[in-house]
Amino acid sequence: MRATGAATPGSPLDPTASVPATVAVGGAAIPEATVARLPVYLRALTALADAGTTTCSSEELAAAAGVNSAKLRKDLSYLGSYGTRGVGYDVEYLRYQIAREIGVTQDWPVVIVGIGNLGHALANYSGFRSRGFRIVALLDAAAGRRGEEVAGLPIRSFDELESVVAEHRVAIGVVATPAAAAQEVCDRLVAAGVTSILNFAPTVLAVPEGVDVRKVDLSIELQILAFHEQRKAQAEGGAARAADAAEVIA
């Protein structure tokens, strides 16, 4: 059994949690850190395309993605040669190639388990469908929620999990339950045939080999930001004290 880790500083989706250091794509091994940046490049390319940009340089794409151009060129080299010297990248073509590599040119059925405030918000998030993820079912253990509609879908009993997974061939499950229920939900998802889990519960999940888990913990991200804010405040305080001391000496 493997356990997922906490989020890496700077990203709520831990690129090292319950995944190998490299991922085989098209027979080639791609570093997991590169795989984690591909969706960022895809988002940047989509924004450029929406703005009417047809070609862009590596510097322009890197700036839009928030990385340096050398890292971007290295990342894209794992996928193939898609740029033209002196011209740059064809935005639409590169966008399609990255989308194909990460699997979002096809439709991925997703089930969300736990329709509390967070699950409700996730179900209403329109960005899933536009990125190739289709929410097929909302499941909750609370009998009082049955039949309630969220984003056009009825909340169904968690007992229907196995039939939902089989009917829609679900490979991705989202856990948005309280921590105490998360492992049991995870076990049921895995037993039903789900092999990828997005975990929003504030706990570590143990999964067998062959199952990938991505953990999102917003409270950890806030704590990381608080750490940096504290360090900045301490540095500013130290600078102010040094300035005061300099004035006294003068």
Q: How does this structure look, described?
A:
By secondary structure, the protein is of the alpha/beta class. It has three domains: about 20-100, Winged helix-like DNA-binding domain superfamily/Winged helix DNA-binding domain (Arc Repressor Mutant, subunit A); about 105-215, NAD(P)-binding Rossmann-like Domain (Rossmann fold), CATH 3.40.50; about 220-250. The protein is about 45% helix and about 20% strand. The chain contains nine helices and 14 strands. The strands form four sheets. A seven-stranded mixed sheet has the order 9-10-8-7-11-12-14, sandwiched between helices. α8 links the parallel β11 and β12. The longest helix is centred in the C-terminal third of the chain and has 32 residues, at about 220-250. The radius of gyration is 22 Å and the shape is globular. Residues about 5-20 have low confidence and may be disordered.
